[in-house]
Amino acid sequence: MTPKEFEIMLSDAEVQLSRIKHLYEQWFQGIERIEPQIPRKQFDRALHALRKEQPRNTAIRFRFQTLIQRYTTLQTYWRRIGRQIEEGTYRRDLLRARRRREAGRVEREEERLRRSSGPVQLDPNADVNMDQLIAEASERIDELKRAPVVEANAAAADAEETTTTLQNIRAQRARPPAPPKPQAPAARFSKPKSRRPATTKETPNTASSANRRAPPEIAARSKGPGEARMRQIYESYVEAKRSNNERTDKIDYERVAKSLKKMVPVLDRKHKGKRIDFKVVVKDGKVGIKPVVKK
């Protein structure tokens, strides 16, 4: 197969895939009754024939790979929607069922209103028992007459009960209060006396305490360099870094001084009675600070 023939078949396959996509959309919308399986099988055969050929043109090969990826994505989408349609959870079917329920409810409501508002039609040929109708109407009238009497009796009973309750409350308020009951005296216990002999507190001897000398304060002596020398060491360190083409943007004076001050007590314990100093050195191509012990 020549590259020209391969390109023609590839263009036909792209057109077929677009047509199959539109058919599936019509099936999802309810326009088509069945799934378009036959056009899809034809496209699968055309795609299988194209896969047998390996074109050398990079542009044609890119188009072919894009067509395969697009078809794979559409297959996943079609499979998912088809499963939802089979299970009855597709949004289109749910909306359609909801519309049908609403339409049926409206029709039933209109029918009920039409029946209730329409005139009653009597069949002239039907037999009507007038005695029964008169008896039912009489019973209904008697019930309506008895209703106000029952309500009046209930209201009178409630009023009588309320009056009785108020009288009881007033009688309880007018009754004199009962005298308080005498309470037994609470038992009190005294603090137990100790059997130990009392010890006399010795008064401190102010004269002897005054003669005692307070312990002398230990003066903190620093064997390390001072603030001016520390600043000089930092400047020399930064200058050496720059001369050695090393970064100096992250070098901070407080951080360098803190690191050197931490080393001073360790060196002081190791070299007692000697002064500690530092100097900038270059070792193995890197700039550093080395401690120096002076007498």
Kindly list the characteristics that best describe this protein.
295 residues; 63% helix
Structure, described:
- It is a single chain.
- By secondary structure, the chain is mainly α.
- Among the domains are: 3-94; 227-294, no CATH class.
- Helix content is 63%, strand content 6%.
- It is built from 8 helices and 2 strands, in the order ααααααααββ.
- It has a two-stranded antiparallel sheet with strand order 1-2.
- The two termini are 95 Å apart.
- Residues 200-204, 206-211 and 214-221 have low confidence and may be disordered.
Shape assignment = flat
**Helix count from the secondary structure assignment:** 8
Ends distance: 95 Å
Strand arrangement, major sheet = 1-2
Helical content band:
55-70%
SSE topology:
Elements: H1 3-29, H2 37-52, H3 58-87, H4 91-117, H5 130-174, H6 206-211, H7 227-243, H8 253-270, E1 275-283, E2 286-294
Antiparallel strand pairs: 1-2
Short description:
The protein is mainly alpha-helical and 295 residues long. The protein has helices at 3-29, 37-52, 58-87, 91-117, 130-174, 206-211, 227-243, 253-270, and strands spanning 275-283, 286-294.
